[in-house]
Specification:
mainly alpha, 88% helix, 0% strand
Length: 211
């Protein structure tokens, strides 16, 4: 039996499972590329921004942040724009931007997790349909039951159950890969937040102490 016949035997539930699998793969590739573009060398970027700020050129530092991709530049930009505000206001502004960036990174990631959870259930649904089909054949053809008539329902049940698991396992893997990428970016954001806040506080203290 070739692959096309397998698809035909799987019935509409199999096609639904495959559609979910393709959707999960598309979301994974889009999110992975987005997160890869967002990853920058945080230490080098901070060093460059601080050098610009050392020359008292805040506008250029903000422009650098706007041109760079990812959540870290957005976080640093927020800190620079609120550098003259009290410490609590600065922390609140940076925290707000940080939460927005994390939500942006996590966008559509839950779709993959959801597909990983529902495809085994869809496979189970296809299995139940296959069993019902087999039972109906037994009911209609008893006592002379043809073996090919029985195998149709059993084959459909087996194909759908296997397809649900085959799609679900990669979905869990893809979901975890994206979570690891997001966690790394969050750690970079936390490090950038600490360093830029300390730098701006040091500059504020120096400015106050200057004659």
């Amino acid at each position: 039996m070739n692959a096309f016949n397998w698809f035909l035997e799987g019935g509409p539930v199999l096609w639904l499972i495959l559609a979910c699998g393709f959707a999960a793969a598309a979301v994974f590739l889009e999110r992975l590329l987005h997160l890869r573009r967002a990853a920058i060398d945080t230490r080098d970027f901070l060093h460059g921004v601080c050098n610009v700020l050392d020359r008292s050129n805040a506008d250029e530092a903000v422009q650098l942040c706007e041109e760079a991709p990812g959540p870290v530049p957005a976080l640093i930009r927020a800190a620079i724009l609120h550098r003259h505000e009290p410490r609590h206001a600065l922390a609140e502004a940076v925290g707000h931007v940080g939460r927005a960036e994390i939500a942006r990174m996590e966008r559509r990631v839950a779709v993959i997790a959801t597909i990983g959870q529902i495809t085994p259930l869809l496979g189970l649904l296809g299995t139940v349909f296959g069993i019902i089909e087999t039972v109906l054949v037994l009911h209609d053809q008893t006592p002379l039951v043809a073996a090919p008539s029985l195998t149709v329902g059993v084959l459909r049940a087996s194909i759908d159950a296997a397809a649900g698991l085959i799609v679900a396992v990669p979905c869990y893997l893809m979901h975890n890969i994206l979570l690891v990428q997001i966690d790394r970016l969050v750690l970079d954001m936390e490090a950038a937040d600490t360093e830029i806040t300390a730098y701006l506080a040091g500059r504020a203290g120096a400015d106050k102490g200057a004659p």
